[in-house]
Design goal:
The complex is a heterodimer of chains A (424) and B (235). Chain A is of the alpha+beta class. Chain A has 13 helices and 15 strands. In chain A, helix 11 packs antiparallel against helix 12 (388-413). The model of chain A is unreliable at 200-211 (pLDDT under 50). Chain B has 235 residues and is of the alpha/beta class. Chain B has one domain (41-63, 84-233): P-loop containing nucleotide triphosphate hydrolases (Rossmann fold, 3-Layer(aba) Sandwich). In chain B, the strands form two sheets. A six-stranded mixed beta sheet of chain B has the order 6-7-8-3-9-10, with helices on both faces. Chain B has a four-stranded antiparallel beta sheet with strand order 2-1-4-5, covered by helices on one side. In chain B, strand 9 and strand 10 (227-233) form a beta hairpin. The chains are: A alpha+beta (424), B alpha/beta (235). The A-B interface holds A 1, 5-6, 9, 13, 16-17, 19-20, 330-331, 333-344, 417-418, 421 and B 59, 62, 64-65, 84-85, 88-89, 91-93, 95, 97, 99, 103, 105-108, 116-117, 119-122, 125, 164, 168.
Chain lengths: 424, 235
């Protein structure tokens, strides 16, 4: 009964009927247009926002557990001008973690040193990280030129260093730094390699104000040999000395499932051996999970807003279709008299409603795809366009048309032909 | 009822038909025990003052209404036994409707309007179009196929409506005050067209209250208060 041909003709008839009232049809589609546009745009922006957050967290390594030394609040008032504060992670912690965890793929100790780096007249104050060769694997950093630190460097207290990208660019603007020498503090270090920059980590930056890639890496053993455990900070009126054995321990867990267990165990162990809270445990996976939860709430909110605007659009369409049905009562009567069955009338008005809603929907998809582009230009957000969003929006607009067209079409089909023919 | 020796096949047959409307607690008997037969090739007019039951009778004859009592047969098919879909199909295949106010569909052009009944009969578009073009030529509008109804005069619109009523090759042509909205000259044209159709053997029923229209038909059925008042032979 409803072959392709019949459908096509019903469709053409629907379009013709809608064209009788161009302005009205256009205004009716606006509701759908904005509803669908908001669905597509918000999905893209929402996806982009959560992807950005997730990328930042993944930078930290989702299989890593990061322990950091933090300076505990000073609880005693002292007028000493020279004092030494001892806090933070210790080599003993490192050894314990290394000995305890069967899941550990690698455990990386990191010391941060305050030393100036100098090449000729060029001077820089980078973060100098003293660490072991496993650092590279655990952090997922990439070597740009040359090689990373190896076990021989560590065992032999070698005076070698690997430069971060910016450091290399600044200290050796015109040449490859590999094989050259950099003066760190009072000693010369051979450059054995450079690393690619990593995307700035934003809020989780260990030292606020320092560009993360402004760093120089040296072997842990060499660091301790030349610079010791004590660091002196000179402030106005006082000298402050800090003794911190390790600034950071990165524990890379072998399987994602083990991360949360390992994190709980680490917290437990650290609590037992540290009286003060002079450390923090950062678990990127936990942040990621929290982010997922936030994302879910965000999506529910978006879906509700989109749902409401589609509902409003649908009601608008239904309203207009009810008016159309009343207005065309006579036509319905005539068609019934000429042999149209109820299902023909239902089909006719349903197709008309779907044409309205899908017309609005398609325009809405267009607008919805344009909005993220505009957002991209004017903000630093990067919306993510998926195929699913327009497809979903299209399906929704067909669905809205069917749902809200049902009642007007039913009303039309169930008119008494005698009454309908008499209608003025 | 024609009284001739060899009776033609009955096309529409009303057997003791009544149509009762329930108006609150009142019963209104719009038709009250009508018996009549319309045979193949007949040309009738149905007349009566307003309220005599003309419209009700037309609705019953056109199968858009069903009798409360009695039986109505179209080509031997009893209307009372049919459901809504079957009734629609019966209208589509057996009945041709012509209305006082033409009732063309304004968003469709002449050709499309003529083809509307075929849409519900699943006649292939090519064949339907050929039929429609032929009928447009028959009513003298083959040069206006792509005009919209509002671009046509009343007489032209009614010709389109007549073409539309014929496109499904009906057994029975029902015209409800078909000339009521037309001037004298156009009325004459339309009635000439009916005469031609009658000569070709079409069964036609005109419902009218104009005596000069009624007198153009072969027989007139007069209704009064829902009953058959008298039957007149006009020629």
């Amino acid at each position: 009964m409803f072959g392709n041909n019949t459908f096509l003709r019903t469709f053409r008839l629907g379009v013709k009927s809608l064209m009788l009232h161009k302005l009205r049809s256009m205004l009716t589609t606006l509701g759908m247009l904005f509803g669908v546009a908001s669905v597509v745009a918000m999905l893209a922006i929402g996806e982009g926002a959560s992807k950005e957050a997730q990328d930042q967290i993944k930078q930290l390594g989702s299989q890593n557990i990061i322990l950091r030394s933090i300076k505990p609040p000073e609880d005693m008032v002292s007028n000493q001008t020279v004092r030494v504060s001892v806090y933070g992670l210790t080599v003993a912690d490192f050894d314990r973690i290394k000995a305890t965890y069967p899941w550990a793929k690698s455990v990386v100790p990191v010391r941060m040193l305050q030393q100036e780096a100098r090449v000729g007249k060029r001077l820089l104050n980078p973060r100098v990280l003293a660490t072991t060769p496993t650092y590279l694997e655990a952090t997922g950093r990439v070597i740009h030129e040359g090689r990373f630190l190896n076990d021989r460097d560590e065992a032999g207290f070698a005076n070698v260093c690997v430069l971060g990208y910016e450091v290399a660019r600044y200290l050796f603007p015109f040449e490859s730094p590999v094989g050259k020498r950099v003066k760190l503090g009072a000693d010369y270090f051979h450059v054995i390699g450079t690393m690619l920059p990593r995307v700035p980590i934003g809020s989780d930056q260990p030292d606020a104000g320092t560009a993360v890639t402004e760093e120089i890496l040296i072997p842990l053993s060499t660091g301790r040999l030349w610079f010791g455990d004590m660091q002196v900070k000179i402030r106005s009126g006082s000298r402050e000395m800090e003794q911190v054995e390790l600034h950071e321990i990165v524990l890379a867990v072998d399987r994602p499932e083990s991360v949360l267990v390992a994190a709980a165990a680490t917290r437990e162990m650290m609590k037992r051996f540290h009286k003060d809270i002079d450390y923090e445990v950062v678990v990127p996976l936990e942040l990621l999970l929290r982010e997922e939860a936030t994302k879910r709430i965000f999506k529910i909110v978006l879906a509700s807003i989109a749902g409401i605007s589609l509902l409003v659009g649908g009601i608008g369409i239904m309203n207009v279709m009810l008016a159309t049905v009343t207005e065309r009562t006579r036509e319905i009567g005539v068609r019934r008299a000429l042999g149209a069955k109820r299902k023909h009338i239902v089909m006719q008005f349903l197709v008309e409603t779907v044409v309205l809603s899908v017309g609005g929907g398609v325009l809405g998809i267009g607008l919805g795809l344009a909005i993220p582009k505009i957002v991209e230009v004017y903000t630093d957000m990067e919306p993510v366009l998926t195929v699913a969003a327009p497809a979903l929006a299209f399906a929704i607009s067909v669905g809205v048309g069917l749902l809200f067209g049902m009642y007007p079409a039913w009303r039309a089909a169930n008119m008494d032909p005698v009454e309908a023919l008499r209608h003025e | 009822m024609t009284g001739t020796a060899t009776l033609a096949r009955p096309v529409a047959e009303l057997i003791d038909v009544s149509r009762v409307y329930q108006m609150g607690t009142n019963e209104v008997r719009a038709l009250d025990g009508i018996d009549c037969v319309f045979r193949d090739g007949d040309y009738w007019s149905i007349m009566g003052s307003s309220g005599s039951g003309k419209s009700t009778m037309l609705n019953l004859l056109g199968c858009i209404d069903r009798p409360t009592h009695g039986e109505y047969l179209v080509d031997g098919i009893s209307v009372g036994d049919l459901d809504d879909d079957q009734l629609s199909e019966l209208r589509g295949t057996h009945i041709g409707f012509i209305f006082q106010s033409f009732n063309l569909i304004s968003q469709l052009n002449v050709l499309e309007n003529i083809m509307v009944p075929l849409f519900y009969l699943d006649v292939p578009p090519a064949e339907g179009e050929a039929r429609a073009v032929e009928l447009a030529r028959r009513v003298g509008l083959d040069d206006r196929l792509d005009h919209r109804p509002k671009e046509l005069s009343g007489g032209q619109q009614q010709r389109v409506a007549i073409a539309r009523s014929l496109v499904n090759q009906p057994s029975l042509l029902l015209a409800d005050e078909a000339t009521g909205n037309l001037d004298t000259a156009t009325t004459a044209e339309i009635l000439d067209l009916f005469d031609e159709l009658h000569d070709e053997g079409m069964t036609i029923l005109l419902v009218t209250h104009e005596a000069d229209v009624g007198s153009r038909t072969s027989q007139t059925l007069w209704l009064k208060d829902g009953r058959v008042d008298k039957v007149l032979q006009n020629r």
